[in-house]
User: Which sequence fits this backbone?
């Protein structure tokens, strides 16, 4: 699961960087190619930028920051440890 989150983080980071460098993004609909930029449609551009940046942040959190719980062979991984 962490590996998948790391892959998503890297891929979406590349997409966000390309979005900023190219100044927009392309998509195809009904056989036509459209280019969305700040000048053509600022609402779509900024929404895509914010949404993909949010995905980068969430996948970075789950891929690199969250620690996995260690399971020492127990059948129930969320079992409480009794301290005596």
Assistant:
């Amino acid at each position: 699961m962490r590996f998948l989150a790391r892959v998503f983080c890297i891929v979406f980071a590349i997409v966000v960087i390309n979005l900023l460098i190219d100044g927009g993004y392309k998509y195809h609909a009904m056989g036509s190619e459209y280019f969305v930029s700040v000048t053509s449609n600022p609402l779509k551009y900024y929404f895509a930028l914010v949404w993909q940046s949010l995905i980068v942040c969430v996948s970075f959190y789950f891929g690199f920051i969250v620690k996995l719980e260690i399971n020492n062979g127990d059948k129930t991984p969320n079992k409480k440890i009794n301290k005596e």
User: Anything to note?
Assistant: Helices lie at 2-22, 42-65. Strands lie at 24-29, 32-37.
